[in-house]
Model the fold of this input.
Amino acid sequence: METPPCRDTPPRRFFETCRRYFGDDPPKGDFPVQKKSPKLCGSNYPLSIAFIVVNEFCERFSYYGMRAVLTLYFISFFHWDENLSTAVYHAFSALCYFTPVIGAIMADSWLGKYKTIIYLSIVYVVGHLIKSVGAIPSLGNQVVHVVLSMVGLFLIALGTGGIKPCVSAFGGDQFEEEHTSERSKFFSVFYLSINAGSLISTFVTPVLRGDVKCFGEDCYALAFGVPAALMVLALVVFIAGSGLYRKMPPQGNVLLEVCKCIGFAIKNRLKNRSHHIPKRDHWLDWASEKYSKQLIGEVKMVTRVLFLFIPLPMFWALFDQQGSRWTLQATKMNADFGIYVLQPDQMQFLNPLLILVFIPIFDLGLYPLISMCKFNFTPIKKMATGMILAGMAFGLAAIVEVKINETDMPQLVPKESLIQVLNLAKNPVQVTIEDQDLFQQPVEAFQDPAEYSNLILNGEQQNLHFILQHQGLSLTFNYTVKEKSVYSLIVFEAEGSLSSRLITDLKAKPENGLAAVRFINGLSQDANLTIDSKQFVAVPKNYGVSEYLLLERDKYSNGKCITEMGEFTLDLGLLDFGASYTVVVTNVSGDAVQTWKSEDIKANSVHMAWQLPQYLLISAGEVMFSITGLAFSYSQSPASMKSVLQAGWLLTVAVGNTFVLVVAQAAPMAQVWFGAFSRANALKRALGGASGCLCSGDTASLPSPRLLHGVLAVCTSFFPARALAGNFSQEIYSPKVILWAKSPGRCTPVRADL
Done:
């Protein structure tokens, strides 16, 4: 290791000199700023990168673990609807990718990368702690929880976003210039550590949320607390390697200089619009009166790369919905894999798992094979292919959603309601409803209706006559029916005759894959029912009806029914994902009560495994798009602007999330969110409008929110088609601008999302 010039220094300047030497302060003059770090096992890899890789693993575990359960946290803990939950999720994601600009400015202009990472990591930790405290149910009311959670999310976004453009660049700074091959391999390991952290966290934190109970419900405090602990560990590990780092000094306010240069060039060009003034080769050359040729040349490189970034937000608009819409889709599916039941938010672990599998396959297999076929698979074409794969993934997701919608309740419309008849009498009953052409055949005893029937009303509500005919008896009952409601008509025997009761049913499937169950007590005594030793409900006698209970999907065979006659066992059987049940306690037999179960809303029948193809495509698209693009942005950035240009890359993620947020909130959200191909005419409208107003941000023409994902898929595919066809500006492909022509053909990852 090089010896610092601290010896023979006057004592009063000793500590200041050493501190400046090791990079804590910007050096002055010709003062040396770099030192050689010890190597790993005699290789050319500096020991300091081990601390950076471990830090990144822990930080990514922290971020992705917290984000994996965030959407369901909004829905289950705050009781927000899907649309608000999705909007806040993408607002948070967008903020995480807008804040890299702040981190880049701090690193390049003020503190340097090392101090920026330290300070913003502390902010990051504080945000996690506040978020965890806000998830404790007993702490205050709903307002307190929301405020704490939003403050925590803001600090997390500031912390994670601020360090994004710094960590990978700081890792690259640890290598000497002659070790370019080792630096490229480091970026591969760096990317793998990111996905390893993401893989483990997206599998573990949903388990902490769903399988561990605290305060009588899902343990979100633990699910957020573990990522907080990992972020503390990340900070400790990073600080532990402090003495080994090469700490490059800040390069000055580069971003401000770039903006000033661009602004001056535009202003100067507008002032000199006369035909008598000679034209210049490039519009940025109009800044030459004030700025150096070197700066103008570097800004040209940056603007050319940024021009290439224009279509990239469309990819992220699709990609980041894995944590919102795809997770919500998973809550409507069957998650039973036989030996294990997945939590809906655990499906996200497929993406990092597939990334870890695809990187070596693509690097060592696919790309060399394509090269052997004499096809020039340039970085631009790789990115374009990745965007197309993302569009295809959402096409498959739309098809899956169509199948899911088939098990949903029918859409409720004005002046209509839904009704079914549950005949609890011993014999068939003929049911006639005034002015309605329903139930042509008698309703059999204890027959589970196949589906609900439509009631047509003449207003918002209507008083209807229900005529029941049973063994020569004809009885009329009057009930008031409201529009957009779902009812069950309970028919039962009472005092040697017939009686009935109109009860209100659920309008939609239970959220998050839960099962809903209510009880009708056919006994002559009040019953107290205990389900799984946790859920308790009291049901009045003589066909009294309980409220709905929401239960995890499981077999419930050890329930208890307590009446005046004693305690009896209650076997409910399997309560499946997303189903709604009416359980009728009919009589007592021995030490158990006899029950009859009606499935009012059908269980989720589409298996979660059908999401695998869309995850395969989106992950393959990420490998081609994200890794290639990140390496490209790093290679094209001048030495003084690496953090700034990487922040620009991350800004495309923010814009993509903002696009989803704006479109989702501007469109009417009354229908199911994404079934772009659910109807042929819907697909036609999506294809017809994709390249026009929809891409320009005009959401007024959206035919329905179901088309959101189809439209995004079409928009995403529009740009790659041009890239593959070679219609981009030839200036972008120029070897003087794009240095990939001199780079190895293999994909070199630089920085994950990440």
Remarks:
- The chain has four domains: 1-33, 48-244, 292-403+607-742, 416-601.
- Residues 48-244 form a domain with the Growth Hormone; Chain: A; fold (CATH 1.20.1250.20).
- The first strand starts at residue 213 and ends at 214.
- The two ends are 35 Å apart (CA to CA).
